[in-house]
Amino acid sequence: MVAVELYRVVREIEELERKLESVPAVGPERDELAAALREACALRDRLKKMIAGAKD
Predict the structure, then answer these.
(1) CB-CB contact of 1 with 50 (8 Å)
(2) 26 phi-psi bin (left φ>0, alpha ψ -120 to 50, beta other)
(3) CB distance 39 to 33 below 8 Å
(4) What pTM did the predictor assign?
(5) What region does 31 belong to: left with phi over 0, alpha with psi -120 to 50, or beta?
(6) What is the structure's pLDDT at 25?
(7) List of residues 6+ apart from 24 with CB closer than 8 A
(8) How many CB atoms lie under 10 A from the CB of residue 16?
(9) What single DSSP character describes residue 6?
(10) Distance from C-alpha of 21 to C-alpha of 5, rounded to nearest angstrom
(11) pLDDT at 20
């Protein structure tokens, strides 16, 4: 189940990165996307650690 969530988060990160490239360099929309991207990356890292911990 964790792997499925990791897959979903990775896809979300890819989508956020695409959106971030298409918005102006400065503005509230960019700030919101950047914050969402940071949160998604942190979640991805936590999920990867959970999977790595389960393998040990």
Answers:
(1) no
(2) beta
(3) no
(4) 0.87
(5) alpha
(6) 87
(7) 30
(8) 19
(9) H
(10) 25
(11) 95
